[in-house]
Design brief:
256 residues; alpha+beta
């Protein structure tokens, strides 16, 4: 007789929650087909090894599982890092972090920093100056910062405009803003291969979307062709963003 208790229900809920989170991460990163493939392989393995007790097939699939887990960890190290950071940034762990950092909060007005970026984007939009600015949230962007030139400067409207000026040697690539400072410029970001992205959006938009898929960063793009401002966040691209929406999105980051 098969018994089903609270422990079994909890076990199912935990596995379901993990699978749902993996599904969300892979869907946002454009690798949902791989998720279905891995899920199908696990189902075949469980059926062959556990239900029908097929010794030979089960042994072969066991070997593939042990190797496959290592390969998946290598391929999705960024997503795994993001998952662990998300866990540590919620609930009681987040409260503990706030207690330990109490009193160390930067007293600089975040509103001035936000408006410095907003004014720069509006000015570049008016002059149709292409720009790509990436804002760090929870996931550290140290690996991407190293691909460009480290400047570690205060956020300043004129500085942002001068960096993305067409004749500037640093206008190509992305600017990374973290810890309320301009950390690095001319950075190389991962490019999204999402086929659903409109054809008229260029490489800057694809890099912004790719970065929002690989990390939890928020990326702001100013189009060189149209001057429109776009935001890539959590694997979703929003085009024709107004200054009010931009200010609201940035305020959530700087006030965190």
């Amino acid at each position: 007789m098969i018994s089903f208790g609270i422990k079994d229900l909890l076990d199912i809920l935990i596995v379901g929650a993990i699978l749902f989170y993996i599904y969300k991460v892979m869907k946002s990163s454009g690798t949902i087909s791989l998720f279905y493939g891995v899920l199908l392989f696990i189902m075949i393995w469980v059926v062959a090894a556990e239900i029908f007790d097929m010794k030979l097939t089960g042994t072969i699939l066991d070997k593939f599982m042990s190797i496959g887990l290592i390969v998946l960890v290598i391929l999705f190290q960024d997503q795994i890092k993001r998952f662990l950071i998300d866990i540590g940034s919620h609930g009681h762990l987040s409260q503990l972090k706030r207690i330990f950092h109490h009193g160390a909060k930067d007293t600089k007005s975040y509103h001035g920093l936000v408006m410095g970026v907003v004014y720069a984007c509006l000015s570049m939009s008016k002059s149709k100056t292409g720009a790509l600015i990436c804002f760090q949230r929870k996931v550290p962007l140290g690996d991407y910062e190293k691909t460009g030139d480290i400047i570690d400067a205060d956020i300043n409207t004129r500085l942002i405009e001068n960096i993305f000026f067409k004749n500037s040697p640093l206008h190509d690539g992305a600017m990374i803003i973290a810890r309320r400072r301009i950390v690095s410029v001319g950075c190389i970001l991962p490019v999204s291969h999402d086929m659903n992205l409109p054809k008229h959006l260029g490489l800057r938009h694809r890099a912004a979307l790719g970065m929002s898929q690989a990390t939890d960063a928020l990326c702001v793009v100013v189009s060189e062709e149209t001057g429109n401002i776009s935001i890539a966040k959590d694997g979703v691209m929003t085009t024709n963003v107004t200054s009010t929406d931009l200010e609201k999105q940035l305020s959530n980051i700087f006030d965190a």
